[in-house]
């Protein structure tokens, strides 16, 4: 399950030893709502291999600014505290699985 986190929790998770798959979203965003169940399915498949999190860009404006996020949904993968991959927009399950598997 993708856990919704705040800025402090986000920074702590990036210090961990697992890759982090982060969905930057907003509650009013239609494509974000479409991506949510797809992300949950992929998160279940990769349980234990990566941390899946969600960041509300309206609540965590600092994180959106830090990573230059101007459009959502924006899925980013972090390793060792650094962003190693990013994808903008809705992705069907097969595409999200490929994005995650090739970057974690």
From TrEMBL:
<feature type="disulfide bond" description="Redox-active">
    <location>
        <begin position="29"/>
        <end position="32"/>
    </location>
</feature>
<feature type="site" description="Deprotonates C-terminal active site Cys">
    <location>
        <position position="23"/>
    </location>
</feature>
<comment type="similarity">
    <text>Belongs to the thioredoxin family.</text>
</comment>
<feature type="site" description="Contributes to redox potential value">
    <location>
        <position position="30"/>
    </location>
</feature>
<dbReference type="InterPro" id="IPR005746">
    <property type="entry name" value="Thioredoxin"/>
</dbReference>
<feature type="active site" description="Nucleophile">
    <location>
        <position position="32"/>
    </location>
</feature>
<dbReference type="InterPro" id="IPR013766">
    <property type="entry name" value="Thioredoxin_domain"/>
</dbReference>
<protein>
    <recommendedName>
        <fullName>Thioredoxin</fullName>
    </recommendedName>
</protein>
<keyword id="KW-1015">Disulfide bond</keyword>
<feature type="active site" description="Nucleophile">
    <location>
        <position position="29"/>
    </location>
</feature>
<dbReference type="GO" id="GO:0005737">
    <property type="term" value="C:cytoplasm"/>
</dbReference>
<keyword id="KW-0249">Electron transport</keyword>
<dbReference type="InterPro" id="IPR036249">
    <property type="entry name" value="Thioredoxin-like_sf"/>
</dbReference>
<dbReference type="GO" id="GO:0015035">
    <property type="term" value="F:protein-disulfide reductase activity"/>
</dbReference>
<keyword id="KW-0676">Redox-active center</keyword>
<feature type="domain" description="Thioredoxin">
    <location>
        <begin position="1"/>
        <end position="104"/>
    </location>
</feature>
<dbReference type="Pfam" id="PF00085">
    <property type="entry name" value="Thioredoxin"/>
</dbReference>
<feature type="site" description="Contributes to redox potential value">
    <location>
        <position position="31"/>
    </location>
</feature>
<keyword id="KW-0813">Transport</keyword>
């Amino acid at each position: 399950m993708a856990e919704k986190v705040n800025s402090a929790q986000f920074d702590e998770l990036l210090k961990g030893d697992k890759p982090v798959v982060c969905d930057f979203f907003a509650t009013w965003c239609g494509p974000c709502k479409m991506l949510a169940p797809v992300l949950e399915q992929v998160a279940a498949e990769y349980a234990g291999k990566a941390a899946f999190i969600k960041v509300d860009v309206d609540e965590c404006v600092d994180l959106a600014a830090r990573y230059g996020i101007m459009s959502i949904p924006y899925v980013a993968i972090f390793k060792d505290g650094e962003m190693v991959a990013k994808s903008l927009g809705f992705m069907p399950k097969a595409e999200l699985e490929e994005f995650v598997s090739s970057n974690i």
